[in-house]
Design brief:
By secondary structure, the protein is of the alpha+beta class. The protein has two domains: 3-179, Ribosomal Protein S5, domain 2 (2-Layer Sandwich); 182-322, GHMP kinase, C-terminal domain (Alpha-Beta Plaits, 2-Layer Sandwich). It has eight helices and 14 strands. It has helices at residues 73-89, 113-128, 135-143, 199-204, 212-232, 235-254, 265-279, 303-310; strands at 3-15, 20-22, 27-28, 32-49, 55-60, 68-69, 96-103, 158-161, 172-176, 183-189, 284-287, 294-299, 318-322, 329-330. Strands 1, 4, 5, 6, 7, 8, 9 and 14 form an eight-stranded mixed sheet that branches. Strands 11-12-10-13 form a four-stranded antiparallel sheet. A two-stranded antiparallel sheet has the order 2-3. The longest helix is centred in the C-terminal third of the chain and has 21 residues, at 212-232.
Length: 331
Amino acid sequence: MKKVKIKSPANIAFIKYWGQRDKKLFLPFNDSFSMNLSSCYTILEIEKKEDPKIQKLYVKDYEKDNFEIKTDDSFKKVLTFYHQAKKFLKVKKDYGFVIYSYNSFPKKAGIASSASFFSALALGFSWLFEKKLDKKNLSILSRLSGSGSSCRSIPDGFSWWYKGKKSSDSYAISIAPPSYWDLVDLVLILNKKEKKVSSLEGHIMAETSGLFKYRLLSLEKRLKEIKKAFFKKDFTYFGNLLEEETISMHSVMMTQKPPLFYWSGKTVEVIKKIIEQRKKGLEGYFTIDAGENIHLICQKKDEEKFLNFLKKQKEVLQIIKNYPTYGTKFI
């Protein structure tokens, strides 16, 4: 085969990854926990070339009609990962490649576009170098791309990323299949524009926050509690922990040096509306990654009620409906 096509989901972190204890190996300070998203994904096609000088990346952005060749930082990151993958896989031969990538959702908007892209690329490069990896090692390779959270997109369904003590034991596994719990993630697009500060830049400054060490202390308990709530399917406790975790991470961001404010006025207004609906008996909880846009987590039985409500809110430009789904795979 000279060409393969890969599909890989973005994931929403219930317990977040923020800050790196090793900035070369992209090792986190804490475990994290996420769900793969059925409607937020990257489709990546990679073609092998015998001429190693042929190295091209074409990207079709969300809601665009045509692919554009990339020669900017995004292409440089692909080249860097190419060499990292070659080293990890212990291969000597070089290959050329032509990559076509398409996103089903806005990139660099806090919806884990780097996670879906680099998890797909990890599988693509392992194929390019003719190495078949198990999920564990593919997860490790994906983490080494620089997008740590991409390792959680490799396993199916609900993923747990172990922080590990070293590179070889920092990887993600599936702790439950997609069918385990009928959760729904409604991604509320408030702004489709790319954020000004990337997650990678933000991670580097995490430890400058005076709240960072307190966050790590609280995480040990929260990780245990959310796992209990998840396996008991205690949605109320699970949801409260989601919001507690979101506020914890963004408090660190806002107190970094320099401060990092991803939330907008729209973000705050929608959060208030979600809380107000909950008081009225419609149970849903917010979680927000490194961006302005919001993930509303609800149960399948309340999906339509939330959709009807959210479609009427002026702050919400678009809603992307997601269910738990499978991890990175060839299609």
